[in-house]
Here is the input.
Amino acid sequence: MKDILACCCGLKVHKETIMACMLKGPLEEGLKPRSELREFGTQLGDLQGLREWLKAHDCRYVAMESTGIYWQPVYSVLETAFSDEMHLLVVNARHMKNVPGKKTDMRDAEWIATLLRAGLLKGSFVPERDIRDLRMLPHSARK
Here is the structure.
């Protein structure tokens, strides 16, 4: 695979944790990118910490699996990073062929980042924030 992104991050999102793998480095063939793994919680403060970590590394390309509804708060917090210049992909897990062998969240996050760095991921459709907010109105009216 030929790399096309100098810095990107893959996220494995769960209900209470997010495993993040950032790949950063030169795009010359034969040179491996530096990999940094971090684990974050899913509370607002933790998500803001994830956003600040990405901003500190100037990482503007992020991909995550569309695991149930757990990706939604992560997406909402990250989409405002870099004055809307963050490129977020929500990817259907079935469209990513995973690494064979023992599955771990770290390996999954690294595989997502590797595919993103090579430009091999296609994001699912995510409506604009205004539309997503409108879709939530019926849910908030029931409470």
